[in-house]
Structure formats: structure tokens, C-alpha cells
Specification:
With 115 residues, this protein is α/β, with parallel strands linked by helices. Helix content is 40%, strand content 17%. The chain contains three helices and four strands. It has helices at 14-25, 54-68, 87-105; strands spanning 5-9, 29-34, 45-48, 73-76. Helix 2 (54-68) runs parallel beside helix 3 (87-105).
Length: 115
């Protein structure tokens, strides 16, 4: 049986980290894109990236799929954590980055489904 591949955006803290740990117990290959490396989590692949930088982000996504294969799961937990209340930065982090990721990764899902 092929392992399932989960890509988790912002999976190093809070509920994202909890989901990463759960996916590991389900024997998933877990890829994480985040600003900081995960602490006390083993058996994952971590990529540091500023998801608001589209060109760099698309390169990271290409590398993830190349290394770990097509996706079965894609989950978003990112949020803007800047120094002040910055509406534009929140939109870039929460909406624009999500749109860019979904558009790039849409045809990179495993077509076998979740059985």
C-alpha cells in the first residue's frame, strides 16, 4: 500500500502541530511549510518559506511534490504574525498565498482517492 502524502501549511504550532502528529500516526508522509522548524516532531519533511513570496513558494511546492510525490491531503493553518495589525499582510498570508498554493497544486493530487 502506498503511503498517503499530507502537505500542511503552518504545521509547527498549535492545532497544525497536533494534526501533523496525528498524520504521522496514520503513517502519512508529512510535508510542512512554515516559518520556523518544528520542535519535537520527527519523521516529517520541513521547508522554511515565506508563503507571501510567490516565486519562492512555487519552487518549494515543486520540490515537495518532486521529493514526496503527489498529495492526498492539503491543510492550511497559516496566519499573519507580524508586529502590528496589518490588513494587507493578513490578506497576503491568509488569502493570496492560499490561492497561489491551490492553483499550483490542484493537478498534483493523487488520483487514486482516499480509500
Amino acid at each position: 500500500m502506498d503511503k498517503k502524502h499530507a502537505l500542511i501549511i503552518g504545521g509547527t504550532k498549535g492545532i497544525g502541530k497536533a494534526l501533523v502528529k496525528e498524520m504521522i500516526t496514520k503513517s502519512c508522509v508529512v510535508s510542512i511549510i512554515a516559518r520556523h522548524p518544528p520542535k519535537d516532531i520527527q519523521d516529517i519533511d520541513y521547508w522554511k518559506a515565506d508563503i507571501t513570496k510567490k516565486k519562492k513558494l512555487l519552487g518549494v511546492l515543486k520540490e515537495i511534490v518532486s521529493k514526496n510525490g503527489k498529495l492526498n491531503y492539503l491543510v492550511f493553518f497559516q496566519r499573519y504574525r507580524g508586529d502590528k495589525d496589518n490588513w494587507d499582510a493578513e490578506i497576503e498570508t491568509s488569502l493570496t498565498a492560499t490561492k497561489n498554493i491551490v492553483e499550483y497544486i490542484a493537478d498534483k493530487f493523487n488520483d487514486k482517492g482516499d480509500k
